[in-house]
Design brief:
Helix content is 37%, strand content 18%. By secondary structure, the protein is of the alpha/beta class. Strand 9 (197-201), helix 8 (205-214) and strand 10 form a beta-alpha-beta unit.
């Protein structure tokens, strides 16, 4: 079958053509000045083809051209993955390929892309079987479990096992200041028994050294001045996360971490991770954290980590939304490890949300495409389209199973008993009815 790839680019990525040829297609690339259907028809005059595929970003409908001119994917890099699963005759002349083939196909596309992401990743080092990417994609997830007085080791073990089951690649055991050494180390010992990667983040440097002796894979939160406090025999035994001592600006963080990185190498440390530390939003400089991460990713040879908790916990925004956006910003900034927590009620489920977000970000980076219509979503409240039997009429009004519902009025009257479908479609208006009167 012969495909003609119609493009306005001066040069199409040769890997796209090679992958399509490997699938058995005869491929020709046709450069055009305009994607207007009449111009495309003129450009194709005299060209032999079975299907001509125009970019999925084209705003035009090509139905008038007889069905053999169809829309491809938003990014050309996605097209071979789609045509590995479906025939070109399932593509549409009017909508991009991602929408034409539907979410089930795109889930499989994303799964295959993510397999390639992991296979092609450049890893800075390995911790057991876990590769730590030098730069994304992929991005791995660390999940913070807080050890405090009164929280038994069995509960810590169950919580840690839950976090791994939700997608955590690393469990971070942090602790309250003044926590008994024995309590912390007993908890660490139990979590290490799960056979997964564990990071130690106790409040005491003395306890951190003991944790490394016990086999912790990562030591958290060292600074330039504390590097010399870790015994030399341990400096090549684990990975070490370095944070800045001076937080005044992104420039000071980059400067501090650059000096700390050089000092650590001089002292014999081998596996290093740099964490510029996330500030809370708006008044403390959330943006500066990402600028610092971006600068460090461009000039250092160490993986970059960001703990998203400081931002997620300091804004009254649903965690799936904040984690999704922050993870995408982390991906753009060259961050390959993100950390979340689940200590607060609001943050419940954050590990699962972060894992989804890192997969979406990894696939989008690999395909050079926006994180949209990839099959995977973090749309926990608002879907891409209404459920069956529902029509949105605008102004917070729906027809739900032939009954008209005004969401604002329904929740003011407490009519949540209308059913789960009503609650689903009215979710944006359900929680904060006082907002319009501010």
């Amino acid at each position: 079958m012969k495909l003609v790839l119609v493009t306005t680019l001066e040069r199409l990525d040769s890997s796209v053509v090679e992958k399509l040829k490997a699938l058995g297609y005869d491929v020709e690339v046709l450069s055009v000045r305009s994607l207007n259907p009449l111009d495309v028809r003129e450009a194709l005059r005299g060209v032999s083809f079975d299907y001509a595929i125009v970019p999925g970003t084209s705003p035009y409908d090509y139905s008038m051209l007889g069905g053999r001119v169809v829309k491809g994917t938003v990014s050309p890099k996605t097209l071979p993955y789609v045509l590995e699963l479906v025939s070109p005759n399932l593509l549409s002349p009017s909508v991009q390929a991602e929408k034409a083939v539907g979410p089930n196909v795109m889930i499989e596309v994303s799964r295959r892309v993510y397999e390639d992401v992991r296979a092609e990743a450049i890893y800075a080092f390995k911790l057991g079987s876990l590769g730590v990417p030098l730069r994304p994609p992929p991005i791995i997830v660390a999940s913070d479990v807080y050890v405090r007085e009164g929280r038994g080791v069995d509960e810590i073990l169950l919580e840690s096992a839950y976090r791994y089951s939700e997608g955590a690649d690393i469990v971070v055991l942090s602790s309250q200041p003044g926590l008994s050494k024995r309590v912390y180390l007993d908890a660490l010992d139990r979590v290490l028994s799960l056979g997964r990667v564990v990071a130690a983040d106790p409040a005491s440097l003395e306890v951190l050294v003991d944790a490394l002796d016990m086999g912790a894979h990562i030591a958290m939160s060292l600074t330039r001045s504390s590097l010399s406090e870790i015994p030399g025999r341990l400096r090549s035994k684990a990975a070490f996360v370095i944070i800045p001592e001076i937080m005044a600006s992104w420039r000071s963080r980059v400067y501090e971490l650059r000096r700390a990185y050089e000092e650590a190498l001089r002292l014999g440390y081998e596996n290093l991770i740099l964490d510029p530390v996330v500030n809370p939003p708006v008044n403390r400089g959330l943006l500066q954290s990402f600028i610092a991460a971006r600068e460090l990713s461009e000039e250092s040879r160490a993986p970059i980590m960001l703990g998203l908790n400081n931002a997620v916990e300091m804004m009254d925004v649903d965690s799936h939304a904040s984690i999704g956006v922050l993870t995408l910003l982390a991906a753009e900034s060259g961050v390959s490890i993100v950390m979340v927590g689940e200590e607060s009620y609001k943050a419940r489920g954050s590990t699962r949300e972060a894992k989804k977000a890192t997969i979406i970000a990894g696939v989008a980076l690999k395909l050079d495409t926006p994180p949209k219509d990839l099959g995977y979503t973090i749309l926990n409240l608002k879907g891409k389209s209404p459920p069956g039997g529902v029509q949105y009429k605008g102004y917070a009004r729906f027809i739900v199973d032939n009954v008209e519902v005004d969401c604002r009025e329904a929740f003011r009257r407490g009519e949540v008993e209308c059913g789960s479908k009503v609650y689903e479609v009215c979710a944006p208006w359900a929680e904060d009815l006082s907002f319009p009167s501010l």
